[in-house]
Amino acid sequence: MHITFDDAFCSVAGALPTLRRLRIPATVFVCSGYAEDGRPLRVPELIEEVDAAPEELATMGWDELGEIAENGVEIGSHTVTHPHLPSLAQWEVERELVDSRERIEDRLGRPCRFVAYPYGEESDHIRAAARAAGYAAGFAMSSDLRRADPFAIPRVGIWRGDHGLRAAAKIALQQASKRPLWHAGTAR
Ligand SMILES: [Zn+2]
Fold first, then answer.
1. CA of 116 to the centre of ligand 1 (A)
2. Over the stretch 33-59, which tens digit does the pLDDT of each residue have?
3. How far is the CA of 7 from the centre of ligand 1 (A)?
4. I need a labelling partner for 128 at 20 to 30 A (CA). Which of 9, 20, 90, 92 fits?
5. What confidence category does residue 175 fall into, taking pLDDT thresholds of 50, 70 and 90?
6. Alpha helices of 109-148 — where are they, by DSSP H?
7. Distance (Å) from CA 78 to ligand 1 centroid
8. How many structural domains does the chain have?
9. Ligand 1 centroid to 21 CA: how many Å?
10. Pseudo-torsion of CA 54, 57, 60, 61, nearest 10°?
11. CATH number of residue 84's parent domain
């Protein structure tokens, strides 16, 4: 099992000691533009939530990201600004993917191997751009386990309200497939 957190919300830090104790590897996907000052993720879809509880949607800055990376959490890219990638021109897609990877590597001094597409939105040309941008793999939101594309790794979405049995059932269904989604060791 590998747990991933999109958006690098500060609240994620609360889950990390438990994951460490259970030896479950974790990746946090950060928008490099937000990590500059840790401001709340004020994308149009979240404006009401941000305005109601800005501290809950505050994001980790570089110092906090560096600290959790020191503790074994992998830091991946969630682009620079959290755009809808399919709505952008190709050069803008490339800039979001390349600039965020370079910035994360510069600030944290370690490789940024993975990208998670904002809103899970990807396509042939977006996956190709992620590969060209130097990533080893890309994480989608699809839970279609038959997809074997390392640039569209499916994930089981666990959302607010998915606690207890509901989350356990979602994970168990995935494990029942007895099929590894992807091997970190074999990717470029
Ligand atoms: Zn996101």
1. 8
2. 999 988 888 888 888 888 888 887 899
3. 5
4. 9
5. low
6. 124-132
7. 7
8. 1
9. 26
10. -40
11. 3.20.20.370
